[in-house]
Write the structure tokens for this entry.
Amino acid sequence: MSLQLYSHSKGDLEKAVEIILKKATEFTLPAKAEQQPEDLIPQIEAAKFLHVSIPTIIDWRKNKNLPYYNFSGRYYYSKKELLEYGRNRRK
């Protein structure tokens, strides 16, 4: 195991800190792909919205192409897409 030691002047360290602070203040987080859009509702609310049971929602999601979004193992549904799905099922 080798050990390397570096020696920097006070000015070098101050400049490094200035650069880091400048980059930190200019840094913006990228938009997360997992951010939940505002019109999404959880599974329980989706079942109430469509006046069906939770097992029915699960069945439609698994077997009948009900559009859904999965965020960290939780299922969410768009109200707009639920209405569209309901209209298409009646035809």
Notes: The radius of gyration is 26 Å. Residues 10-26 form the longest helix (17 residues).
